Automatic annotation (TrEMBL):
It comes from the Bacteria. Residues 1-159 form the N-acetyltransferase domain. The keyword Nucleus does not apply. PANTHER family: N-ACETYLTRANSFERASE, UPF0039 PROTEIN C11D3.02C. This is Arsinothricin resistance N-acetyltransferase ArsN1 family B. It comes from Spongisporangium articulatum. Keywords: Acyltransferase, Transferase. Gene3D superfamilies: 3.40.630.30. InterPro entries: Acyl_CoA_acyltransferase, GNAT_dom.
Length: 174
């Protein structure tokens, strides 16, 4: 089941995210955020950008969310997106379903572009994004240092809505 995140999901979301921070360079954070910090992040953005969770048997096994692409006003029709899955949720189509639901929400809100940054190499993430229609737009070389080495970040773009010469303002999260 895919649904909107709730405040009480913060601990489960933090637990899904923790291995990405502690065991990989997929996330450039140096310490895994605790539940309270994850709740703060959700609450700080959820009124304008959706956060969704996937449940399996009542347990949160993944989440996807959007956030602002950049701070300046001209970027307000574009978002950055991410999806994270618990190990038992990999290779089951859950990431695809989370992202598709997220993109439906974003389109309904009036967002035009979604961008995804992928720490490289990460063929699973690249494959997921490209299977959903994302196109590569560039690579930031040696942009992040973690685990004793420099990492590149590739950027992918998905057009959510065609460009409108006079776009309406994006709507708040329903």
């Amino acid at each position: 089941m895919i649904r909107a995140v709730r405040r009480e999901d913060a601990a489960a979301v933090a637990e899904v995210y923790r291995p990405y921070v502690e065991q990989t360079a997929i996330s450039f954070e140096s310490g895994a955020p605790a539940a309270a910090e994850m709740a703060r992040r959700i609450e700080a953005t959820v009124t304008h950008y959706p956060w969704l969770v996937a449940e399996d048997g009542g347990t949160v096994v993944g989440y996807a969310y959007a956030g602002p692409h950049r701070a300046r006003p001209a970027y307000r029709w574009s978002v950055d997106v991410s999806v994270y899955l618990a190990p038992q949720a990999h290779r089951r189509g859950i990431g695809t379903r989370l992202y598709q639901a997220l993109f439906d929400h974003l389109r309904a809100q009036g967002y035009c572009n979604a961008f995804a940054g992928v720490a490289l190499p990460n063929p699973a993430s690249v494959g997921l994004h490209e299977s959903l229609g994302f196109a590569p737009v560039g690579v930031y070389r040696n942009v992040g240092y973690k685990s004793g080495r420099w990492h590149d970040v590739g950027w992918w773009q998905l057009e959510l809505l065609p460009p409108d010469p006079d776009p309406p303002e994006p709507r708040p999260t329903p």
